[in-house]
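Fold this complex.
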Amino acid sequence: MGYEGVPGLVETREAFGETTLVVDPAWLLEACVHLRDEAGFNVLSDITPTDYLGWGERGVAGYIGTPSGRDINAPGSQGDSRRPTTKPKRFSVSYHLLKLDGDPRRVRVQVWLDDGQPVPSVVRIWPTADWHEREAWDMMGIPVEGHPNLSRILMEDDWEGHPLRKDYPLGGEPVRFSGEE
Amino acid sequence: MATVQRRPQVYSGTRIPEPIPSVLHAPEELRRSGDLLTVNFGPNHPSTHGVLRLVVDLNGEHVVGIGAVVGYLHTGFEKTMEHKTWWKCITYPARIDYVSFQYNELVFVLAVEKLLELEVPRKATWMRMALCELVRIHSHLVYLGTSALEIGAISMFWYCFRERELVLDLFELVAGARMHTRYFQTGGLAEDIPVGFYGEARRFCERMPKALDDYEAILDDNTIWRQRTVGIGLLSAADAIALGQSGPVLRASGVDWDLRKREPYLAYDQVEFEVPVYHGGDVYDRYRVRMEEMRESTRIVAQCIERLEEMQGEPWIADDRKVVLPPREELHTSMESLIHHFKIVTEGYRVPEGEVYVTVESPRGESGCYVVSDGGPKPWRVKFRAPSFVALEATATCMRDAAVADLVAIVGSLDGVMGEVDR
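Structure:
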């Protein structure tokens, strides 16, 4: 199955038996409509944003309580690994599509974004995207443009920050009321 | 007494609210009339299966507006897992969906194995299948017991929990823990299958069909049960697909879709079972799908036990010392085993760089796991595709034209587990 006709297609990757279509975010809606109507991907299974801040560097996923931590993720700390391949931008958003009929198939549509760069909403194409996109905004701070109800879903409405970002501290929580107030 | 034999007409067109698919807004003129009563249903209501909050606009007895509020059980599993080694991570997924605990564990372990390109011994594969089907029975029993309880059939709860105890006893026998067993390990199983499991499991398989007959005798033609469930909470096939539904909710809407058949994982292509499909798209048909799934699961468990008995003495975990803990008894005699054990427990094993998305058919539907590895000993990103999360998106569609008394029946039939919704 070729995906050459997908609008805005930047790159096609095959790994672990899965196909990833990297798409220009400006063409995401056209690409999704094409995949739904022409290629038959009628179900949006999942939307996952990923933060690649500090990918391949030391100290990001350190232990709690130390600024840089004892970094067991450092490439080469066991002598046999290599630096991971670099990523084009900080965030990726992956749309896992499923073709639900007699000839099932899956594909991952991926867009790459800088911090604060909006991604168009696919709610009009797959209504199920509603909560997935709210979660992407809530947890990772991906601004979804054109979403009818982009509010926090898992955290409180007045929560500050986006917990699944790599620069969000683990175990750190703002103190709401202190003695000085 | 005449029972209701009418099958519901699944509507034409779409009932998904606009513009927000998961929120039903009350009509403006009703809102202005001042007749509306806005009720907070939950979050601490016994029939919301956890801490789901529904903000309901009522016009008399009728639901005219509804929006679901979730997040009360947000625990940050995905964030926590980024800070644990792969090996320690396996403990977490079972806590996400605490009613079908083995499934998230399975889907995470399968994802890690896919990244490692690790081959699992067949004994482990068949045991995983047997346990997963037992969990499916457990999960459906909890659904049946609590949903029936909410509609007023209190006795069902006690019957269902009687059989549920038997399933939990089997888990206790295998893993020492009744729930959250952490029995699946990267590469296979944590321990060999204990002596006596096959006999107990077989006894359970003999008992379960009779128990199901009893449940059906109580509910199937029960006038009250049918009046409370038939034609309630309608969801058409097209709407179910648009809303991303999966599992029993989808199959009750007339879509023949089961990942165990369509994208077989483990060894599901080697067992015989049927996929029940109903076309009513209502609460009753979701109940019927789950009842028949329990029968089919019992069949699968019996087939697994039969196959497992032929595999006596075979390994239950892959022999890859870089990933799998060495046997306990070797630690006293072998220096290398001690080193491997120490390295795996402290630093963890490394998983090759890459990203995978693995799905399995959990009792609630398509349970997915997206894992990104940077080649280090901890996952870079773990994301669970929770079927309950998606199922609750359909509340607004299902509850169009519902009466307030139907709310609990519909929420129960969608079978959301809030631990999984909020993660």
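Chain A touches chain B through 51 residues (CB under 8 Å).
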